[in-house]
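Same chain as my last thread, 429 residues:
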Amino acid sequence: MKKITLMICLLLTAAGASAQQEKGIIGYSNWLDNWTEFKPQKSDSKDANQILAGNITENTKLLKRNVYILQGNVYVTNNAVLTIEPGTVIIGDAVSKGTLVITKGAQIMAAGMETDPIIFTSNQSMKKAGDWGGVVILGDAPINKFGSAGSYSMDLDPALTVYGGNNPASNSGVLKFVRIEFAGKKVKGMDAFNGLTVAGVGNKTILENIMVSYSGGDSFAFYGGDVNTAQLVSYKSINDDFKFTQGIQCRLFNSLAVRSSYLSSNKDGSRCLEVRTYEKKNETDFTKKATFVSASNMTMLNDSENITADIQAGLVKEAIYVAESASLELKRSVVSGFNPAVLIDSKTEINDANLKKIKFEEMFFNQCSGNIFKENNADNTDLENWYGNSIFFNVYSHTENKETFVDVFNAKRPDYRLQLGKITASSGK
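reply #2:
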């Protein structure tokens, strides 16, 4: 493949401030400041003075002056609205696997503030991934299972965990400036819970500025529905950072996934983005919409200080997985430190029709051992040539993270915006 060296320059505004970056997460300032927490283990634990348990059947407000503990499975039912004040702390009980479920028809109004986020965390003195259940939001937007309905079973009440319907514009409420820490408890004989599970949720729901850190399952899991999301942060999840399945129609913007070679699972099926049309083929109605994800200005990185050694040691897998019949459009995004960057399902035939459903444009692939591969395929030259074509404006580099990002190793306030002025990228591999 012909190599064309591109110098990417950092532009400055007339006032001298840093210009907004074009690839990866963007912002004239670091939008992670103030509301995120990258050392949640060090955060002071608070003692709960209020208990949340059983069913919440009427409109209820949680107040900042209290600290609440989730005991067992807590369901918001009967079309009730659960409102949470900015700055409120809700603690998941580890012994009873505290879990908050917003049932179909109910709403959560958790509108935190940048300087006063709402926090869901663990009640353990030594906090770790999977201490408690997580947050589950169920709606009545379309999914592609037979009968247009699913149930998020786990060990929850099946009568209260039904989701899916015919209203893509349904409204399950607001999650904004919210942190969910150490969720994802493993259920015996089943999978782990996720930090945030969004199932059959409609596009009137607001999902912005949400950070899920140290989840024992996926950070964000979307089962069907139709959602718009922005400024989501997944930090060192054990499983997927973002999982999409069951015909979800999702627009994802300006979001971050940070993985670790030593904390995040390197097993098959643990990625930054996993895009599937179904969980079980025999339960899927293929007359309904397949999964479609349109994502832009994503930053996905492994924060290792020696990516090459970690890849050679087998600690690093692919960043993105696109399964049979699913569609992904990814633009203006950064993928740094994976093996390879993208893996396409072995069942997907590489032809014009399928390549039109899997788009990578204006991408920055950095420190990846291979860029876009097909699963179990020894020779991926055709795919590399296709996506390496200059019409897609994808660029490639092998630059260390500390030179690639503004301040990636700042323990308290990292800045994962792309430091374009220090990068020389090539359109070749």
